[in-house]
Write a structure and sequence with these properties.
Blueprint: E1 2-4, E2 16-20, E3 26-30, H1 33-46, E4 52-56, H2 60-83, H3 85-109, E5 128-131, H4 140-151, E6 163-164, E7 166-169, E8 172-176, H5 184-206, H6 210-236, E9 237-238, H7 242-259, H8 265-294, H9 299-319, H10 324-350, H11 359-365, E10 370-371, H12 375-397, H13 411-433
Length: 434
Amino acid sequence: MSEKIQPDSPQHTQRWRRFLRPDGRTVHVASSPAEAETLRRQFSQETPDLEFDLIIHGSPEHLEVIREIHAHNEEKRNTLRRTHTDAYQEFEKVHAELDALSVELNTLTDKDVALDANFSRYGYSAHIRTREVDSSATSIRSQQDREAERRRGESMKFWKKPVIRQYFHKGLIWRASETAEVASFELFVDLLYVGIIAINGDRAAEDPTGTALLQFCVTFILSWKLWSELTLIVSWFETDDIFQRLCVLFFLVCLTGYTTNITNAFDSTYTAMIAFYLTERLFQAAYFLWTARLLPMIRGMLIGNMILILVPSALWIGSTRANDSTRLVLIWLAIPIELFGPGIMLVIVRTSERWDGTIIAGIAKYLQFYPAVNIEHKSERTNAFVTIVFGYSVVALLYQNQASYGINAYATPFLKAKICSQLVLASLERPYSD
């Protein structure tokens, strides 16, 4: 009733790729939506007169087919049990012994463990599917260690085609089996961003008024947007080439130029600050457009993100030419688009079934494949960022005593406050890291 496609290398778990329904109709199983489209074109050209069904592994249709075939075989087994009772019982006994011997042989001869990437430190999820690659039956960690050892000392390519790490499709998340680790340049960017927060906060603390708070919100939101977008792109795509490092350096130049203009942004340097901000954002829009050409599967989402960059960019450009009152209106029209625009696309995808026959359903059709954030990479990156913030806070608490002997009366309250603050930071860091 079914046919198993043998992989190139032995696996602990081999999946059925082709089935026959009880009515004789062939059912092919694709490991991903992209493979489904390839198989559909291939079978349509090879056997145009033969009808077949094409389903995606892990989908509700796949589960329904398995249940149908399982029920059919259960019925056949019950029929054999009734008509050939003695022979059936003898066959079942031999089959059980062979299964037990096979398990024992695997235990004695196969020492490695093939880890399924659906299992992680966060547990198993039925809504996660791993995109398979051909590999030997060794653990993922061992493969990564050998790969790192093999690549040690090799040259890095100038450019590689971006590879999407994970994406959503029809309620399922498809992800690569490799784990995403935090790169060294990400920690460097985090350190720079913590310094930006400190500069921005010091400026607001010097003049604690409503106007200073308003200016702090504007400059902080823009700097956070630059930092978070870089984090998102690194989590979405895997390249690890020289071109990516050059893009990160360009981002750091823009972020540094932005930072040098935030202190007097609403006095004299607003245009320069927005110029550096828009340079990075428009560069990101060009990157999305270029990546959309290379990765057609997620082209709709990338084009949507590019539009969500260009629309507020027009408002930011207008704010540089407007007076103070009109400038604030344009600023607070652009900020909600910057913050909530990508979320609107996600809402359209999640609620597309409610809008059948409308223009929203047509838009959702182009957003079926949506890049996802790698939760392991995100948690490790946040862990490192919070640790940097705690470390910077400890440095900010230090001061020098000016008394020639002992601690003067003026410095004693400050010393007590700083010691208490340092104890609080240490108490927060320990449970967070654990």
